[in-house]
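Troubleshooting log. The previous structure file for this entry was overwritten by mistake, so regenerating from the original sequence record. Sequence copied from the archived sheet and checked twice against the printout by T.R.
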Amino acid sequence: MSQLSVRQIRRRFLILHGLRWLPTGLLLPVIILLMQERGLTLAQIGLAAAAQGVVVLALELPTGGFADALGRKPVLVVASVVGLASMGLLLVADSFVLLATVWALQGVFRALDSGPLESWYVDSTLAADPDAAYEKGLGQGGTVLGLSIAAGALLSGGLVALGPLGPVSALTTPIVAALLLQAVALVALLTLLVEQRPAVGPTALRASVRAAPRMVGEAFGLLRRSRVLLALVAVELFWGFGMVAFEMLPPVRLAEVVGDADRAAALLGPATTVAWLASAGGAALTPLLIRWLGAAPGAALLRIVQGAIVVGMALFAGPVGLLIALVACYAVHGAANPLHMGLLHRQVDGPYRTSVISVNSMMSMPAAALGGVLLGVVGDRAGVSAAMLVGAVVLAVAAPLYLPAWRAGRQAGDTTGDATGGGGVGLADRTEVSEQVPT
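Regenerated output below.
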């Protein structure tokens, strides 16, 4: 990497990061409506989508070893090829089995893709300049992610509004565009990401795979040592389940309100763009929330507020009210996530950090899969509004789980409720936890 400057590395990282998330923005407004157009019920959609969560759960930890042993670029190339295959299959998938296969391939893509690009950026930056502040690029990466999804969603709505193109239905046109952009991202990856391969090989890869069960056990062992940490990770179970109510169901609810799936998708394009911008704005407000309320009380309040907003989405009669509620929900979501992650980071030290973050992430996967199935069944039998109300209750029920962190913060004399002392897992608590690379 000596031939690239820190600025060049950061620029390449941001370009690749943006191209990675632009196709996702195209998919978000249409994917659920497209599956309904192809004959799937809400229960079948939830069950098909659960395949992604199961695959990611299985591969979340081992894929870090793949990237370390084989190199970041090969893993990212394989991920991109799998993503292309998934997108290509989505163009023609017209049955439950094929659509479940699409989601399973998306799970493989997400597991392989999660982490290597960011790790390449950090390692390459430090190789070019050991004193470089790589945090700037990571922060800009978050901004690029939000803008890319927002731009993709806006483009998706515009494509649907143009109507069908020959034999391609209006809801399928964003998938065609996403496939093309995925191919562009692969070419950019092959061109821009320059890596010096690690000296390790298949032996290190096999060792990483064999170590995965032990790493999972050690990570879960941390939870037994801290009631605060256990409660914070448990929030993800409710959060993952409840997110289905504002990620999967609003397109169905809007189509129900306006009476036409194509019109709903066209409206959701710009609405999703605004929602992601609102999410970025919500994240920017978190320092104020910490000063006004404290991190733990603020996070608990946001869980309740988010549940109340989902109730509004379920009961509002008009499309305008539903779309306003959707934007508000994402603003709250954007504010809640940094508060939650900040509390989580304060509960763990040094080499335990990545283990806990991985476990926290893993908890949401099976919960989201279960939520997709159960809320889909409720939606089919009692209506999409009833399913959203159930999801709203689950979101709000997570609020008391922030109480242990709030109490720990108060006992430590921390008036912000950040739980900076007490209950944290530190070096004195465990001695046999190996460091992990986040995926």
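The chain has a mean pLDDT of 81. Archived copy saved in two places this time.
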